[in-house]
Design brief:
With about 400 residues, the protein is of the alpha+beta class. It has helices spanning about 30-40, 60-65, 120-125, 235-255, 280-295, 300-310, 355-370, 375, 380-395, and strands at about 45, 75-80, 85-90, 110, 135-145, 160-175, 195-200, 205-210, 215-230, 330, 340, 345, 350-355, 370, 395-400. The chain has 3 domains: about 1-15 and about 310-403, 50S ribosomal protein L16 arginine hydroxylase, Chain A, Domain 2 (Malonyl-Coenzyme A Acyl Carrier Protein, domain 2, 3-Layer(aba) Sandwich); about 40-230, Cupin (Jelly Rolls); about 235-255 and about 280-300, no CATH class. The protein is built from 9 helices and 15 strands. The strands form 3 sheets. Strands 1, 2, 3, 4, 5, 6, 7, 8 and 9 form a 9-stranded antiparallel sheet that branches. Helix 4 (about 235-255) packs across helix 6. The two termini are about 20 Å apart. Bound molecules: manganese (II) ion. Manganese (II) ion binds near residues 156 and 215.
């Protein structure tokens, strides 16, 4: 019997990966390559009708419902007064419906992070940005704003694509070399905001902003909804700290290995000292050598970094999945993060060595976020066992059962 009969034939996942040198509607006719060369990290880009016909990924009522959830990161930002008397209030979720102002009240907004974890339509929106490394992706945030609502003039250390999905929002942006943050406010508002450019975005319009550009977006002409696809720029200190933490764990593991003889400090050359309080220089060198060895262990740093970068956010938990039936494809769970480097595959904070055909197929899963039944039929027993395990963990799902 042909194990593949009766399964829907799916388009090859390559169709889902944008062509890097073709003009893209999403980027206003620029190709992804052009965009990365001309705008990424450099200059804002306004694209009218980047996503023509875009629908809000959820209704206002569904968004408020989501903001009530314990496991969802949500915020309510309210502005009272204008100009010199202006004051801002921030409440962190979960946001019970009764804590929200009446709909007719202007100048408030609800923001929900990580929408892609909850909604396939949000995941589909993110898929359009797969020409940017996933290791940089933070999340898809959605904001609903009452008339006049916004979070005030501010800047982020993010590359962000602001996608208008409902109603209209006026964006004002400016480079701010001398931005002063207003003290004593729960939100970071720029006191001396000087907008240089201003646009009103309608559904389907998109504004890309590089990090450090001050921006202010208000709902105009009634309520509106905006999606933000954010790419975070980790600091070098954060990456150093996080990789060192994981390298330290690996050192402990090595120590615990049975039969391994740990290198122990020896000082047969130590002379009698009149300064018993002084730390011997040899001991310092010995420690430095140990540290260098840990850092220079082939692949160790890459592994620690990959584990960190693929770690799910603290709020993410996975439900145990169904077994993987024979003859079907797999798709990554919306919350899963699958990355790779030259020698490893990283999935949700864990690392595996992978080479040759196994590495190839797992990299393909990372890039396309799915493998079809034909590709699955060709995987090795090792990869199949791994995918079955990931299926049990709820990290991947059978593709056929999702239609
Ligand atoms: Mn922002």
């Amino acid at each position: 019997m042909n194990p593949l009969s009766g399964l829907p034939l799916r388009q090859h996942p390559d169709a889902a990966v944008p062509s890097l040198d073709q003009p893209a509607v999403l980027l206003g006719g620029l190709s992804p390559s052009d965009f990365m060369q001309q705008h990424w990290q450099r200059a804002p880009l306004l694209v009218r009708q980047a996503l023509p016909g875009v629908q809000p990924p959820l209704t206002r009522a569904e968004l408020f419902k989501l903001a009530e959830g314990e496991e969802v990161e949500s915020r309510l930002v309210t502005r009272r007064g204008r100009g010199a008397d202006e004051s801002w209030q921030l409440e962190r979720g979960p946001l019970a419906r009764r804590r929200l102002p009446p709909l007719k009240q202007p100048d408030w907004t609800v923001l929900v992070q990580g929408l892609e974890q909850h909604l396939p339509s949000a995941q589909a929106m993110l898929a359009q940005f797969r020409f940017i490394p996933q290791a940089r992706l933070d999340d898809l945030m959605i904001s609903w704003a009452a008339e006049g609502g916004g979070v005030g003039p501010h800047f982020d250390s993010y590359d962000v694509f602001l996608i208008q999905v409902q109603g209209q929002r006026r964006w004002r942006i400016g480079r701010m070399a001398d931005a002063r943050i207003r003290p004593d406010l729960p939100v970071k508002i720029i006191e001396n905001f000087q907008p240089e450019q201003e646009w009103v975005l309608s559904p389907g319009d998109m504004l890309y902003l590089p990090p450090g550009w001050a921006h202010d977006g208000d709902a105009v002409d009634g309520e509106c909804m905006t999606c933000s696809v954010g790419f975070r720029s980790p600091s070098q200190a954060e990456l150093a700290r996080e990789t060192l933490l994981r390298l330290a764990d690996a050192v402990e593991d090595d120590d615990a290995q049975e039969g391994a003889r740990p290198a122990v400090y020896a000082d047969p050359g130590q002379t009698a000292t009149a300064e018993p309080g002084r730390i011997p220089a040899g001991l310092v060198r010995f420690a430095a050598d140990g540290l260098r060895r840990v850092l220079e262990e082939p692949g160790a740093l890459e592994r620690a970094l990959g584990e960190y970068l693929s770690e799910p956010k603290p709020s993410v938990s996975f439900a145990f999945g169904d077994p993987l039936p024979a003859g079907c494809g797999v798709v990554l769970d919306a919350r899963s993060c699958l990355l790779y480097d030259e020698h490893h595959i990283f999935m949700n904070g864990d690392a595996w060595h992978a080479a040759d055909a196994d590495a190839q197929v797992l990299r393909r899963l990372a890039d396309a976020r799915q493998l079809d039944a034909v590709e699955m039929a060709a995987v090795s027993d090792v990869v199949r066992a791994l995918l079955e395990q990931w299926c049990d963990d709820g990290w991947v799902h059978p593709l056929a059962s999702r239609g």
